[in-house]
Amino acid sequence: MYKPRILLCGKSKNLPNAEIVGQIKFRGAAERGEFIVPGGVKYADKFKLAEGSFKIFLNGAEISVDTLRKILDGAADYIVFENHDEYLLRFRELYALKLVDRVITVPTLLNYARDNFFALDNAVQIFNLIHAQRVLDADAFFIKNDYYMFPDLNHKIAGVVAEDFHFYKEIFPTLAACRFRFFDAVLLTAERSPAEFIDALIETDALTENIWAFVRRSSALEKFLAANENIFEKISVFPAVNGHWFLLKKFARADFKIYIVTHKDAKLATLPDGYEIIHAGHTLAKENFGYLGDDTGDNISRLNLYLNEITALYWLWKHTRQSFIGFCHYRRFFTTDGENFLSTDSAREILRDSDIIVNDCKFGYIALRDWKTLLSTRPLAEHVIATIRKFIARRQPDYLAAYDRVNDSFGVYCYEIFITRHEIFNAYCAWLFSFIIDATEEILATTDIASSDDPRTYRAVSFVAEHLMTVWLIKNRLKIKTLPIIFRDDV
Fold first, then answer.
1. 397: exposed, middle or buried (C-beta count within 10 Å: 0-12, 13-18, 19+)?
2. Which CATH class is domain 120-249?
3. Which of 177, 163, 206 is nearest to 476 (CA)?
4. Rounded-to-integer distance, Cα 315 and Cα 280, Å
């Protein structure tokens, strides 16, 4: 465990959680009364000292200010005053010598320094370095350094804190609560061993491509980072009090794939970079178009007649690991200009500020629940809605209110099409497939849709299931970007 190394101005032989590396004394202008002002408060009119007017003694031997600075840059972290009055007496002298950022009292040492390498300069420096970035303060550094006193300075900073001090733009009670967010950087400041730091990198990996870390001078972590620079794309170092700020840029997660789901010849002679076609219901197909199929390994391709594109979604969940993944239809593609398919580069840029890209649509003056009855029949639609609700109540009861709200709403995110990061895709699929397959099997067993040749009947489940993403999205409060679509009517 790290113990701050201190030069103690006092008589104690030991202090809790600190290592005393020397006893220090000062003699100077304060003793001569030069800093006395009316009222007895020890201050000076100017922050200047005459040369030779200030003496420093370390373990009884006089040393120079330059020597003291070298000690504070090597063998010691802080000068600690045991007597608070003497600390106030010396404050102007130490300020004039540019040492005040390394000088604290015993209470400050016990409250701040062990965990946060206390120095106001460090807090100011990192704040300026991350200015205007979307940053997650994972260790509540700014709150612990009293920056909550300046709520107008927070800009885009989010914090993992148990209590809201009205500083952060966004509050998360735990790091796990951030799991669907993405930040320009994550700030790690707590004292960590190399192994603990690696654990923190893994825990925050999906949240950012950049880590700002405070690394104590001569620590095991500093030595580890110096010996393992190759695990990062780039390391930038900024000198700070008692250590350095490290900007660790991770290797970019470049694998990006947008899958085009189809059940027929998609008639796309050329595809934009990063796009690939997947054949949903391939196991039932009468014709093979040479596309990726959804019927290898763990799959539900046999249910395609009832779940439509969701069988391809299941296969992608089980068999792909792209860092970014998209899902669109052979007729429907995201666009920004109304003419061209959204490029993966543009999608990546959008996902720097948003969690997921979707398409929204509205039904006017008819609720989704009623819209489904028009697509099939009222008894069948109500049975499907009720059966899926029953399985959500069993497997995902926290989503019941969201499910009911969506069914009674006048607009949803449409067509089960999206582009997002793998972590969000994985979480959504884990939720969806915890109930939708079993719900579908029960609907097949309690209706005659399996024997029907009417698409309005055998697609009744998919009519409801395609809007389940809306349920999951509103419950998880993701930052959503909606884009228009290009609709192809030539296939």
1. exposed
2. alpha beta
3. 177
4. 9
Taking alpha carbons only, the member of 426, 420, 417 closest to residue 321 is 426
Cα–Cα distance between 424 and 180 in angstroms, integer?
A: 6
pLDDT of residue 42: 45
Do residues 458 and 367 lie in contact, with contact meaning Cβ atoms separated by under 8 Å?
no
pLDDT, position 104: 87
Q: Is the alpha carbon torsion for 61, 66, 72, 78 positive or negative?
A: positive
Which tokens sit at 187?
């700030």
Domain map of the chain by residue range?
Answer: 5-114, 120-249, 256-487
Phi (first) and psi of residue 176, to 5 degrees: -60, -30
Both tokens of 216, joined, read 């104590």
Cβ atoms of 442 and 449 closer than 8 Å: no
For 319-351, give one letter per residue: b (16+ CB within 10 A) or e: ebebebbbbbbbbbbbbeeeeebbbbebbbebb
Which two three-digit tokens encode residue 197?
A: 């730091």
pLDDT in tens, 159-172: 999 887 788 999 99
Low-confidence stretches of the chain (pLDDT < 70) are 1, 29-53, 112-119, 363-364
Contact predicate 281/270, CB 8 Å: no
- Spell out the CATH class of 256-487: alpha beta
CA distance 192 to 207: 19
Tell me the torsion sign for CA atoms 108, 109, 113, 119.
positive
The token pair at 19 is 């290592």
Q: Strand 185-188 vs strand 170-172: parallel, antiparallel, or unpaired?
A: unpaired
